[in-house]
């Protein structure tokens, strides 16, 4: 063989070697680890494990799909793929891969155990969904946390259901945290954006809620639930602002209607409705609608029993409804919570004075006259009642008549005297005036004094110089 023939031989040999090396590199990942030839199969499964740790499940599946396509007998690839699919709760696909692996490697206890776990996770997820639909949220959450996400930690369906369960349990911070994990893996997950927005909404963090709804609608402008959430919140904010603006403008009746309209939009939005109820209560107090204001303030305190402003406003509402004791109780509680607030202390003093006045006798009411009655009207009322209740004319019920007669005389004693009447109208303590206003004293006594028995003579004189 001459030089050139030898050179051509070596050249062809090098080309064949290169082709063989390339094919070997392609075939190496397909070499089965169980054959005792670790080669690149071990590297493949290592990469797959790393991808799973990084939650790059699609990448792991792509690698495994390629390997199985190249070598359908690569048993460990089926097991790894089954495991990835189990993590993602793609249960039916996962079962097929476990069964294929067990066909190739029958009796592998670890794989049989994983298949059992898969079936438990699948059953638990079905049960959790049924419990969710029936309203048993706590038990449903147990199945998700203790079974499904243990055996299928990357199950998106289970994670989203968990967020829904946290929302139903009013654990809004938990819902925000869990939905945040989902969005880290998939920032465009529409359902996660919707649920996280709802959690912020129920915490009354409306700006952040709107941003989540808006992002979702940019991705899918026709998403019905996102549209409903977004426009519902916009309408609520619009109604709320209208109510507040009308209060500032002094249009209180319009404000009442706006507050009621805003409250009707979402009765479950507790964090926002507490402020709507309080705003409505304050407006109703200003309008003098005590009974309605009382109801609104009570709604506030059902939500937040420690809200001082609600206690004050309910105290004012109770003053309007003449529930003096209730007003004192509410205002005293508010004063204890905020002892430095002079406005609360002044309101409490008003309530205590009203309570005290409510316990004294209403001389106007006893004589059956209005507070604007003239002196001649007072005298006529007294004369009429004195005749009606004179003990000599009520022999059969003399004790009752005497008590009534004293009361009528005491009323005239105060109201028939200009100075005493003015002081009474101002709410001053005048217990030494007239009878029935306090224990003892030198008050007026139509039956005489000194322990002497008084004998009624109908024809005789009456207090005030009346003669009949």
TrEMBL record:
Residues 1-21 form the signal peptide. TPR repeats lie at residues 75-108, 190-223. GO terms for cellular component: endoplasmic reticulum lumen. Its main location: endoplasmic reticulum. SUPFAM superfamilies: Chaperone J-domain (SSF46565), TPR-like (SSF48452). PROSITE patterns: DNAJ_1 (PS00636), DNAJ_2 (PS50076), TPR (PS50005), TPR_REGION (PS50293). Residues 362-428 form the J domain. It is found in: Endoplasmic reticulum lumen. SMART domains: DnaJ, TPR. This is J domain-containing protein.
